[in-house]
Amino acid sequence: MMLTILTVIIFLLTYIVIMTEKIDRALAAGIGGVAMLIVGIYDVNKAFVTYIDWNTIALLFAMMIIVIITSQTGVFEYVAIIMAKAVGGRPIPLLIVISTLTAIGSAFLANVTMVLLLVPIILTIVRMLDIPAIPYLISIIIASNIGGTATLIGDPPNIMIGQAVEHLSFNAFLIHLSPIVLIIFAVVLLYLIIIYWPKLQVDHIDRKKLASVKASNYLKLTAALPKSIIVLALTIAGFILNPILHIDLTSISLAGALLLLLLTHDENNPEGILKQVEWGTLFFFIGLFMLIGGLEEVGIIDELARGVVLYTEGDLPKTSMLILWMTGILSGFVDNIPFVAAMIPVILEFKDYGMTNLDPLWWSLALGACLGGNGTLLGASSNLVVAGLAAKEKEHIRFSEFLKVGFPIVIISLIISSIYVYLRYLLNFTG
Description:
This protein is about 75% helix and about 0% strand. Helix 12 packs antiparallel against helix 14 (about 250-265) and helix 19 (about 335-350) packs antiparallel against helix 20. By secondary structure, it is mainly α. It is globular, with a radius of gyration of 22 Å.
């Protein structure tokens, strides 16, 4: 009993520190994870062998390397400038183009990576055109979370779910989530256009500055450019062909990362590339896995699963909707990564209570976690990254300003998701 109380105290204190951001979240998660070891909830061997999901860590690490090397070629900036020039710098078409580029990029490059690449570009463009930056920054956040929902590698919660459930492949995420993501993105984009239309009707647009910018200047025409594009394309193709190749996603991504490091080692010092990896994010995940391991070890996960089944009486539609809305609302106020880390073992436990088809629950969890991240500035890592980058350039996104736009979008997204999940997965389970 004492161990259970200690585990809950460590977990809650760590979670509160992560939420309040009083100290670095990777450090907080690491301290919480090590505290589990110190008080004897489990030993270090069990932490490394049983609880830390090294597949997820390795997949994230490999994709970071591929994107770091590719981004140094300037190809992403090139695409963004080309698209801005294609719409002649007109504010509303520019909003549509940047949001669409963010959504598509977030599906295949991870949403945090995409916003890191696009925010400096959009800030440069809006200053050239002398138009407000905030509508574009908020739209980038919204689009990144929606786009990241569509694939297994788009958002960390999806990576975690995909690694926890063997049959939920890259293609499974594409087939099951991309249709609803397309619908939600179209509706949300229309909503963003309506609310930002008055702010983006400006008389003077300095198109001459934009016209004078040569997109080709951003490209570094070295041997690394074609190599990076080819390896990135091959890695994504490997994810898509996973059912035919029978090679797991982690192995494909690691092979892609190592191949690209090898092919570009004359231009990019591997040690320099490794220094640019987001080690804080990786250690944050390791700490989280250790924290959740503590909950599993003392049986709290079992009790949570039993409680949900008891409340929903084991009814699949009711359970699915509860997970979708609970995850969607809570993910707006707390970081969705630790929440999903806690929910995965809970859903896995449902098998012990007679639920044979858990797929609707996994899709509900993925949709709720990724889309719910749009609720507030604290809802997802990409939100905080954009806010931080913008603040450095003296473009402050106020919490209340984002809430007014983001929270209604979450409600709209969850309503559309509920209809989709019900019609596609739950209709045959009612009655």
